[in-house]
Amino acid sequence: MLLSQLLIILAYFLNVTNSLSTSSHYARWAHVSALVGDKLYFMCGVVDTKNTIGSRDLFYLDLSKNFKDSLPIIEISSNLPVKSMWSAANAYGSTIFLCGGWLSYVSNGTLDNIDYVFTFSTQDNTWQRPSTYGTPPASHPLAAVSSVIDKTGKIYLFGGDNAAIAYSKMYIFDTINLTWLDSSDAGMAFNKTLYASVLLNNGEILYIGGIENYQIAKFADINIVELKRQLETQIQLETQIQQPEAQLQQPVPQLLPP
Ligand SMILES: *[C@@H]1O[C@H](CO)[C@@H](O)[C@H](O)[C@H]1NC(C)=O
Ligand SMILES: *[C@@H]1O[C@H](CO)[C@@H](O)[C@H](O)[C@H]1NC(C)=O
Ligand SMILES: *[C@@H]1O[C@H](CO)[C@@H](O)[C@H](O)[C@H]1NC(C)=O
Question: Which residue positions does the secretion signal occupy (predicted)?
Fold first, then answer.
């Protein structure tokens, strides 16, 4: 048998074993997810390719169950008062915080230009629109924003766009006392939207990929934002752009045999 034929059969086999049957009802994009215990929650998003309207759908994947025959998905009836797409979500304790996004009222379909945060309690399966304190973000909609949450329950929302301009601001939301911290100086030297972010254990946030300055950002250009807490109430943000290509060249000689 030719190698190519073998590869095709192998690819077919892998495909069959990797794709578990699920209802197409769950297919979507511009949605968010958050992990609480063994449950991976999926929220909102767009279910159509032609009609870009958000939804308030809510379901979770039970990670404690076997994935052998079908995906263990459990649907929850959602009382979220808005439909959402391109939001961000983080969990703290048993609560999920849905931040930013394109939001439209379920009741009449008009754009919700007021809200930035909704909370979902995984204890009683209900959404709430909490009163928040401090100065909320200035940009609306805060869509395609990505966020990370630290151990003390602070959510760092950076960038995003309103379909016309990409943002360069960092907004920090304290989930413990529902307060927007004063981050008026936290404008970054770069704008970014539709990217991935990850918080490292050393307090650095990596911003990877996405769209920068209307162009697809080079994947290797990783923006690093370092979070330094000087006082409990004061957060200083430092940014640097790392160029991993240049740094990767140094360790290579060490790998060569003597
Ligand atoms: C749409 O509904 C929301 C809340 O249900 C309300 O605040 C808003 O004023 C309504 N907008 C219009 C145009 O009816
Ligand atoms: C991003 O920021 C640069 C300046 O750093 C600015 O020239 C550009 O217009 C911004 N792009 C967008 C899409 O907002
Ligand atoms: C909320 O807590 C943060 C510290 O985590 C503090 O800086 C801020 O002042 C508090 N805000 C209010 C309104 O209590």
Answer: 1-19
Query: Which has the minimum average pLDDT: 106-115, 127-136, 142-151, 181-190?
Result: 181-190
Report the alpha-carbon distance of residue 239 to residue 178 in Å, rounded: 26
Q: Tens of pLDDT along 165-211?
A: 899 888 999 999 999 987 655 667 788 899 999 998 888 888 888 88
Pairing of strands 82-85, 102-105: antiparallel
Rounded-to-integer distance, Cα 82 and Cα 104, Å: 5
The pTM for the full model equals: 0.82
Strand, coil or helix: what is 13? helix
Spatial contact of 40 and 65, defined as CB atoms under 8 Å apart: no
Closest ligand to the CA of 153: 3
**Beta carbon of 113 within 6 Å of any ligand 1 atom:** no
Copy the structure tokens of residue 89. 């979500």
Question: Mind listing the pLDDT tens digit for each residue in 71-82?
Answer: 899 999 999 999
- Backbone φ and ψ of 66, nearest 5°: -75, 140
Alpha carbon of 87 to ligand 1 centroid (Å): 20
Separation between Cα atoms, residue 2 and residue 25, nearest integer Å? 40
Q: Whose CA is nearest to atom 7 of ligand 2?
A: 213
- How far apart are the C-alpha atoms of 95 and 82, rounded to whole Å? 18
**CB neighbourhood size of 95 (10 A):** 18
Question: Which ligand places an atom closest to the C-alpha of 189?
Answer: 2
Ligand nearest the Cα of residue 106 is 1
Q: What is the pLDDT of residue 208?
A: 87
- Ligand 3: which of 174, 178, 232, 236 to mutate, most ligand atoms within 8 Å of CB? 174
